[in-house]
UniProtKB/TrEMBL annotation:
One of its GO terms (cellular component) is plasma membrane. It comes from the Bacteria. GO terms for molecular function: amino acid:sodium symporter activity. It is a multi-pass membrane protein. The chain crosses the membrane at residues 6-28, 61-83, 89-112, 140-159, 171-191, 198-221, 241-261, 292-314, 344-363, 383-401, 407-427. This is D-alanine/glycine transport protein, sodium-dependent. The lineage of its organism: Bacteria, Pseudomonadati, Chlamydiota, Chlamydiia, Parachlamydiales. The gene is dagA. PANTHER family: AGSS FAMILY TRANSPORTER, SODIUM-ALANINE (PTHR30330), SODIUM_AMINO ACID (ALANINE) SYMPORTER (PTHR30330:SF14). InterPro entries: Na/Ala_symport (IPR001463). Belongs to the alanine or glycine:cation symporter (AGCS) (TC 2.A.25) family. Keywords: Cell membrane, Membrane, Symport, Transmembrane, Transmembrane helix, Transport.
Length: 440
């Protein structure tokens, strides 16, 4: 069995039902918190309490999360989803994001509830801490930390640099230069510690998201008449369950579900445990507050993913033979804008997206390494992470993506073990805010 087939098997027969069942359970028990408290999440995001305990503001925390989310998964990852699962994959990405948001809520709530402080006085948390402190399962906590480190080196490092080097190579920039430059810039930021990562992320993320969304919306406005047909095709390909019992059409629906969930996991990181690590150090009044703030990220990410998918479809990029990954996106934006400038906008966005994603993953990997080996040894891993960056320019693109998917699947499995086992704490912390309010 190939790695690609193994990924699809794990996603369709294990990850899909696990996330769906967990998401439905938490959604019902928390009375659709990802809908009812989304507005409150945005409010808390913009009004962080500086007197609360923590190292960074809510805005810096969510910007760091989005820095990890808004990577190549929102550009080249959508091209991969459409190529492997067809238009229906986008619909299943939304299903993944909807249920992933409530899982993200639970994880970030637990991340704050069971967080601690290291020798520097910095707040640290995440799945390894709530699995350890909440359940006493040190081996399972260590296992998650190991998976997080592997994920950081594949998904958060090699994949990002690999996807970055492809379009830059097309305009004549040597991949070796790309790898070296990326290593230098990332090294400068992560050696400065968590606060520098948060400051850089909160400065770059709003700008890069606004630039990309604006251009995508302009392209869609130019081709507005093609959008209804694209949306109809997405829905029909996603929900053709009459064909699911057999035949080529049934195989197509299965691939759409698998590809949608794989890319949805990759793009939003919902359930992977990254957000609880990054948001554990935020200044918040309560664990519940950080939970509802966490739900903002999957929504923002999926809006950008949907815009990317629609641009690829209305410009006809998905029908052009030989286009894959990032190259499909650069072609679509150049075609949509009607000028080579569209291609360069994607390249600039990709540079910013990849850069901030590497920073966010590096921070999470450092926290996982710190949990396993102590704060004093983190510097060794930091330099190792920087040294790996240039290797992404020569890595085999399909192999790197498949390894990244396997690493994230392993993170999700161990993280969901902790979240489900600690669900009583989630409901208890939420009772006054959700269940109590509903009875008034």
């Amino acid at each position: 069995m190939s790695l690609e087939s193994l990924n699809h098997f794990i996603t369709f027969y294990f990850m899909f039902p696990l996330i769906l069942i967990t998401g439905i359970y938490f959604t019902l028990k928390l009375r659709f918190v990802q809908i009812t408290k989304l507005k409150a999440g945005f409010s808390c995001l913009m009004h962080s309490n500086h007197k609360s305990e923590g190292d960074i503001s809510n805005f810096e925390a969510i910007a760091t999360v989005l820095a990890g989310n808004l990577g190549t998964g929102n550009i080249s990852g959508i091209a991969v989803a459409l190529a492997t699962g067809g238009p229906g994959a986008l619909v299943w990405m939304w299903v993944m994001a909807f249920f992933g948001a409530v899982i993200q809520f639970a994880g970030c709530l637990l991340g704050v509830k069971f967080r601690g402080q290291n020798q520097k006085g910095e707040f640290v948390g995440g799945p390894m801490y709530y699995i350890d402190r909440g359940l006493g399962q040190k081996k399972m906590a260590a296992l998650f930390a190991v998976f997080a480190i592997i994920g950081s080196l594949t998904c958060g490092n090699l994949v990002q640099v690999n996807s970055l080097s492809l379009p830059l190579g097309e305009i004549g920039i040597s991949p070796y230069f790309v790898g070296l430059a990326a290593a230098l810039f990332v090294g400068y930021v992560i050696i400065g510690g968590e606060h520098r990562v948060a400051v850089v992320a909160s400065s770059i993320v709003p700008f890069m998201a606004a630039l990309y969304v604006t251009v995508a919306c302009l392209i869609l406005s130019y081709r507005f008449e093609a959008i209804p047909a694209a949306l109809t095709l997405m829905i029909s390909k996603a929900f053709d369950f009459s064909a699911l019992m057999g035949g080529a059409a049934g195989f197509g629906v299965a691939k759409a579900i698998a590809a949608g969930f794989e890319r949805g996991l990759f793009a939003t990181d919902s359930g992977s445990g990254l957000a609880p690590i990054m948001q554990a150090s935020a200044r918040v009044k309560s664990a519940f507050e950080e939970g509802i703030v966490a739900m903002v990220a999957p929504l923002v990410v999926m809006v950008i993913c949907t815009l990317t998918g629609l641009v690829l479809m209305v410009t006809g990029a998905t029908e052009v033979e030989g286009l894959k990954s990032t190259m499909m996106c650069t072609w679509a934006f150049e075609e949509g804008v009607g000028h080579v400038m569209g291609k360069y906008i994607v390249i600039v966005s990709l540079i910013l997206f990849a850069f901030t994603t590497i920073l966010a993953w590096a921070y999470c990997a450092e926290r996982a390494f710190e949990y396993l080996f102590g704060l004093k040894r983190v510097a060794y891993f930091r330099w190792f992470f920087i040294a790996v960056i240039p290797l992404g320019t020569v890595a085999h693109v399909e192999l790197v993506w498949q390894m990244a998917d396997l690493a994230i699947a392993a993170m999700v499995a161990t993280n969901l073990f902790g979240i489900i086992a600690l669900s009583g704490h989630v409901f208890e912390e939420s009772e006054d805010y959700i269940l109590g309010a509903a009875s008034e």
